[in-house]
Amino acid sequence: MCQLSVIIPTFNRRESLLRALSGLARQSYGPDFEAIVISDGSTDGTAEAARSLTVPFQLRMIEQKNQGPSVARNHGAKLASSPLLVYMDDDIEPVPQFLEAHARAHANDPSLVLIGPQSGPENEPMSHWIAWEHRMLQKQYENFVAGVWTAGPNNLYSGNFSLRREHLLQSGGFNEAFTRQEDVELGFRLERQGLHFLFCPEAIGIHRPTRSFESWYRTPYEYGRRDVQMAREGGEERAIALARKHYAERNRLTRMMARLCIGHALLERSVLGSGRAAVRIGGRKVALTACSLLFNLRYLQGMCEELGGRQRLWSALKNEAPAAGRANSEGV
User: How many folded domains does the chain comprise?
Assistant: First the structure.
């Protein structure tokens, strides 16, 4: 039996997946692990390309009809033969000590959920919104290392984390109804099982996301909607407190713009349209500032619409109705 199972969901990212698998082939951990790749309805030759590889570990290529990453991750966990699961996205290239760092942390800690960094590649061009994303994550990682913040379930990113298989199965796995925030929703349930979270700066995955601006722009809106659902349907009281805390930490301009426009359709379109234009045509500094504003406003817009209107949103942020938050560092 392998001592460690790496689970990689993938959809139409053949070249990215091949880079990820090549990274696994260079691990210092040794060959005593398996990689289970779940192709979620890919049509770009992903399965054929993966099966043609010669690698020093056991590679299992599984195909399923397109059902989303949560279904793929759960499928991989059920098939895994080892007691320790490492989840890795198909746009992550693991550094050589990646698996060794995950395995070492779990050796004497049976209740651990380990979170590794998804770091941006050095000296490679990237779009403004991806650069902003990497900058926000790096800020988070630096605060973890410095002890300013403590990793928790709201910091669980499914692209690079590990836990014992028994705990994942006991939790019921990823919520297959969620297409966003499925990792955080799982994190809250794992915490209720008595597990704790730890950030490991050595378990580095080089992250090369390829999403378009429109895909990035939809993401915080979905975060806002899903966080409200977690609070309303899952009764997650900590998520409610996080929403209020994170909103209060935003700078004065962001809070002022949010109060001005969220819930007013015409003003929303005007402010968000200006922010989109700044990202499209502005220089790096202007675009990064616009990304922060857009992320925050779109998140609150999602919350507002899921809660049922402007009044309920601001009541929620004043501790009068449910809401929830994402990570410590997203936004300004």
Answer: 2
Beta carbons within 8 Å of 207's beta carbon, 6+ residues apart: 89, 91, 92, 118, 119, 120, 121, 134, 159
The CA-based angle 140-84-13, given to 5 degrees, is: 65
Together in a domain, 167 and 217: no
User: What tokens were used for 306?
Assistant: 């899921």
CB 196 within 8 A of CB 113: yes
Between the alpha carbon of residue 295 and those of residues 183, 279, 292, 313, the distances in Å are 19, 12, 5, 17
Listed in sequence order, the DSSP H helices in the chain are: 14-24, 46-51, 69-79, 98-106, 128-146, 165-171, 182-192, 213-234, 237-249, 252-261, 265-281, 284-307, 310-316
Contact 182, 69 (CB under 8 A): yes
Which residue is associated with the tokens 């994170």? 246
- pLDDT reported for residue 319: 63
Q: Are residues 76 and 217 in the same domain?
A: no
Residue 49 sits in which domain range? 5-207
* pLDDT of residue 331 exceeding 70: no
Same domain for 87 and 169, yes or no, is yes
Burial of 62 (0-12, 13-18, 19+ CB in 10 A): middle
Does the pLDDT at position 322 exceed 50?
A: no
Mean pLDDT, range 11-35, rounded to an integer: 94
Query: Residue 267: inside a domain, yes or no?
Result: yes
How far is Cα 318 from Cα 2, in angstroms, rounded to an integer?
A: 50
> Which pLDDT tens digit goes with each residue over 108-137?
899 999 999 999 999 999 999 999 999 999
**How large is the average pLDDT for residues 215-243?**
84
Could you tell me if 68 and 202 lie in one domain? yes
Q: What is the pTM assigned to this prediction?
A: 0.91
Question: Would you call 93 helix, strand, or coil by DSSP?
Answer: strand
CA distance linking residue 98 with residue 48, whole number of Å: 26
